[in-house]
Design goal:
By secondary structure, the protein is α/β, with parallel strands linked by helices. Helix content is 23%, strand content 24%. The longest helix has 14 residues.
Length: 171
């Protein structure tokens, strides 16, 4: 079971992965079990095509489990099947205190938006009521909807404090 779930959304180049890296490092250092689900719109290469596990996938295996003394990876080939839903993928994860989900903007789950106006992209939070907090390098707009929290992206320790409180309250 995935435990509590919190999405982290934003446009490419906004700093989602850097923020997640900080949060995961700090939360695990505090003894929390953290899972991360990262959505990619691109093909994911686990090993180069000439390596054994890739050769076996390309030969037709539906799943290849690659194991070592350091980690294991399960590569599951969809072979024209629909991409699994986030809920289906969450069921495959080990139990954790918190699962952070990068991407999946469209999913109905509590979210943090990482927003940098300098990217020239529209913010997501005005259209997504599931966004609870915006982490930005710009000041909050005057017409911010009631209850939406705005924090300085350059002070990630504030976001960490918010997450710890949110986890205590069941996000």
């Amino acid at each position: 079971m995935a435990g509590q779930i919190l999405g982290v959304i934003g446009w490419s180049g906004s700093g989602k992965t850097s923020l997640l890296e900080y949060l995961v490092r700090e939360l695990t250092a505090a003894g929390r079990k953290i899972n991360v689900v990262k959505h990619s719109h691109h093909d994911v290469v686990i090993e180069p095509p000439q390596k054994d596990s890739s050769r076996l996938r390309l030969a037709g295996a539906q799943e290849v489990l690659l194991a070592s003394p350091y980690r294991y990876v399960i590569a599951h080939e969809l072979r024209q099947q629909a991409e699994p839903s986030l809920n289906e993928l969450l069921l495959r994860l080990a139990p954790a205190d918190l699962t952070l989900v990068e991407g999946y903007k469209w999913e109905a789950l509590p979210k943090i938006e990482v927003y940098r106006p300098s990217l020239g992209k529209l913010a997501i939070y005005p259209e997504d009521q599931q966004v609870l907090l915006v982490a930005s390098d710009a000041p909050a707009p005057e017409d911010l909807r009631p209850g939406l929290i705005w924090m300085d992206l350059n002070q990630p320790q504030l976001l960490l404090e918010w997450i710890n409180i949110a986890m205590q309250n069941g996000i």
